[in-house]
Specification:
- With 281 residues, the protein is of the alpha/beta class.
- The chain folds into 2 domains: 199 residues, Rossmann fold (3-Layer(aba) Sandwich), CATH 3.40.50.300; 74 residues, no CATH class.
- A 6-stranded mixed beta sheet has the order 6-7-8-3-9-10, with helices on both faces. Strands 2-1-4-5 form a 4-stranded antiparallel beta sheet, with helices on one face.
- The protein is globular, with a radius of gyration of 18 Å.
- Bound molecules: adenosine-5'-triphosphate.
- The site of adenosine-5'-triphosphate has 12 residues, from helix 1.
Length: 281
């Protein structure tokens, strides 16, 4: 890793509501995919995970969710809520996933069933994980749609995924992810598939949810422009390792690692934080 020190104190002082990844390794069929990833994801912050395609960003997010291919071996440590997630029994990690650690993806329709109404998608999740009544679940679903700023929440509950635009659908998938009140949200390229005109709105929503709910957000993106609009800290990955990690402004304005410098030079007009409209409202 570059000489820059990690942005927040690690080890014993790290908040249990965040995720502390140390020396995380993952091999698939004997091929090393993650080669000792160190990452701190504190609550109330957006931790950006940048890097070129294949560097291991998605696999890091999936490993934190306890989702990895069958023929894979995971090592190192992922601490969350006072627990060690590496080696945790599948039943236990399944309980955490969706309830305390949630994930959204590039394609919002991937996580939503095309034949089930928005009400069904939001309430099934709540009833499964929280065991609440049908009417309580509906109330909570309306609250969630308000929180992600979907217009006419009661009307939206009756509709189906294909009746929404990509941006609205990503907001609905965020609502589904938030249904059970997770502490950690992993957002993997959440705006990559969206029209550029709606990207900023979704990023602003993620930023506000992070601030309002104290969520620990991991924002996976290959786009340093997106990163500079919303992340507090940026970790840059290459070949399955974090090669640089620090406050967003420092990493983008004064990169230490040659690979980070190359990524920044590849940005149109070398845009930095001050050149981007920030997603903070
Ligand atoms: N199911 C799998 N089986 C074998 N190898 C895989 C599997 N999924 C991913 N990989 C490999 O793991 C490496 C890291 O992939 P990962 O998806 O984490 O990269 P990434 O940085 O998120 O890239 P991208 O931006 O393209 O998604 C890549 O070399 C990829 O080919």
């Amino acid at each position: 890793m570059s000489q820059r020190s990690a942005p927040e104190p690690a080890g014993g002082t790290f908040s249990p509501d965040g995720v502390l990844v140390s020396g995380l390794t993952l091999s698939i069929g004997g091929t090393m995919i993650l080669d000792g990833v160190d990452l701190e994801v504190p609550p109330g912050q957006v931790t950006g995970l940048a890097g070129e395609s294949g560097s291991g960003k998605t696999m890091t997010g999936m490993a934190i969710c306890g989702l990895q291919p069958h023929n894979s071996a995971v090592g190192g440590s992922i601490r969350f809520a006072g627990r060690e997630l590496v080696g945790m029994a599948e039943r236990e990690i399944n309980r955490l996933r969706g309830a305390e650690i949630a994930m959204i993806f590039q394609d919002p329709s991937a996580g939503l069933h095309p034949m089930i109404s928005i009400q069904g998608q939001l309430t099934d999740h709540l009833r499964y994980h929280r065991g609440v009544s049908r009417s309580q679940a509906r109330e909570r679903a309306i609250e969630l749609l308000e929180q992600v700023r979907v217009p006419d929440p009661a009307g939206a509950l009756k509709r189906y995924p294909h009746q929404f635009s990509g941006g609205q659908l990503q907001r609905i998938s965020i609502a589904a992810a938030l249904a059970c009140g997770p502490k950690v949200l992993i957002a993997d390229e959440p705006t990559t598939a969206l029209d550029v005109t709606v990207q900023a709105g979704v990023l602003r929503l993620l930023r506000d949810l992070c601030d309002d709910l104290g969520l620990a957000i991991i924002l996976v993106t290959h786009d340093l422009g997106v990163m500079s609009a919303v992340a507090d800290t940026v970790a840059v990955m290459r070949n399955g390792k974090v090669v640089e990690n620090g406050r967003r402004y420092d990493v983008i304005r004064n990169p230490q690692h040659p690979y980070t410098k190359a990524l920044i030079e590849a940005l149109p007009d070398h845009q930095g934080p001050s050149d981007h409209k920030e997603a903070r409202s």
